[in-house]
Amino acid sequence: MDKAINVYQDCSGYWGAWAMSKVYYADVVGQGADAQVAKILATLGEGFYQTTDVRSAARWFSDHWERPAHWSEVRADNAERALEYFGG
What is the predicted pLDDT for the residue at 45? Predict the structure, then answer.
C-alpha cells in the first residue's frame, strides 16, 4: 500500500498534492508537502476544527475546501483508512 504521493503534480491550472488553484494558492506552487499542508491548515477555518470525528472532518473538508460535484461516503471511508494507516 506504500505509494509515493506526488506533491509536485501540475494539472491544468492546479498544482500540488491537493490540486490547489494556482491563482488562489500561488504562494505554494513549487513548494513541498510541508508548505502545502501549512497552507491548508491556515485556510481551513474554525468549522473544520469543530468537527468531532474523522468522517465529519472529511465531509467538512469536502464541502468547504474541495467542493466536488457530489459527496460520496467513499471519501469518509478513505479518511478513516488514512487515519488508521497513519495513526491518530
Answer: 82
- The whole-angstrom separation of Cα 29 and Cα 50 is 29
Total number of domains in the chain: 1
Identify the bridge partners of residue 60 per DSSP, sorted by sequence position. none
Q: Is residue 23 part of a domain?
A: no
In this prediction the pTM is 0.64
Domain range spanning residue 54?
46-86
Residue 14 belongs to some domain of the structure: no
22-50: per-residue pLDDT in tens? 888 899 999 999 999 899 888 888 888 99
**Side-chain half-sphere exposure of 53, counting CA atoms within 13 A:** 5
